[in-house]
């Protein structure tokens, strides 16, 4: 456990530990004591750095949600035409629903956030901003109505694939995207500020 005054990373460790604990035992099982033990900090650090559990949860989940948004922006920002944008949407569905251990953690965190937002309206601002940012990235290639439909498709298919014992294959995803985007005009290029995709894109730490 790290004690003492010179611990500049303490706040970030608490945020990371919060997500780790939630992934293991859910929001209902997360406590200041359990998170402090995971972060290796004194219990008093919890209330020193965060004004209560809701404030801690909001900040931890905001960081988590933004990792997913960044992945949307990287994938869609790298697409150079409509065909590549459709492929990027399919990539998002399949990356977000991968069955490896790291992505299973993200799936759990996503569902924990949704449940929290359903119970506590204050957390809906967080999920609403997440959805807004995702749709903005989709609108680099698709009109706003189509972008909204694709955002729902990405989420729905990713959840279904993640929870199915026999997930559907990519051909079904491609067909669904083609149906939604049929007749879509070729878009303008994404804004110059759109992030580029990494050389070997990896799935985000989340399911959205």
UniProtKB/TrEMBL annotation:
Biased composition (Low complexity): 194-208
Entry-linked Pfam families: TetR_C_31, TetR_N
Record region (Disordered): 185-208
Molecular function via GO: DNA binding
Residues in HTH tetR-type domain copies: 8-68
This protein's UniProt keywords: DNA-binding, Transcription, Transcription regulation
DNA-binding region: 31-50
Top-rank lineage group of the source organism: Bacteria
The protein, known as: TetR family transcriptional regulator
